[in-house]
Amino acid sequence: MSLSILNNIPSMAAQNALNTTETNLQKTLFELASGSRINSGADDAAGLAIADGLQANIMALNQSQLNANDGVGQMQVTDGALSQVTTLLNRAVTLATEAGTGTVNSTQRVALDTEFTSIKAEIDSIGADTTFNNTSVFSATTTTVFLSDANVSTSITVAVGVLAASNIGTVTNLVNDDLLTASSAQSALTDINNAIAQVAAIRGQVGASMNRLTAASNVEATQVQNLTSAEDGITAANIAQTVADMSKYNILESTGMSALAQANSSQQSVLQLLR
User: What is the pLDDT of residue 171?
Assistant: First the structure.
């Protein structure tokens, strides 16, 4: 091998190897710091594209779960209001039954009718004032809960008119009912029982909506778990392997520095020929 002072080829080779080691060591440190093996598109372009797609799906599913939970909350508010209406109607049954007997005088019937009128007013108030997120739950507007895989309607307007403001009497025939006579009280009792059946039917619809939304939320939770696992398999760093790589590159860095120093000092031997 000839001696040359123009180019130090061993030093250049040592520098190149040391640069490669430094790059790999930096990449390993990034992986340990972030916990991810993909910290830029250069690390794994295809894997990054897949992981980004999975992450978008996961975010959509998480929001869908929140939407479903909001829908369940609305249904719970609705069911609570309907429960109160049922309680009021049950009280109305008692009043109508009492007013329908011939042993009650007119003064007593007026008192019973006064309470019955207040019950109808309270039911109307529930229909008008029960809201969720500043929106009436008994409006004629269909509420649709948007999920990532389907639109689930939570409208209960098939029979929601029972509670709609100013519609309670029309739908249940209670608006013209009174307890001022035995016969009118008996007629009112029939209408009240019909109203109770209507409210029970609505509560059944509400319960079905809650069950459907809860089931959808549970399915999406499982999907989030599975997609997160898939994303983790693509992006997560193998910590044990990464630590081993870091140790290897630290050693290579030390030996590379020593080799570079040795390569740089080797040309000093040329000076021996000049002495």
Answer: 45
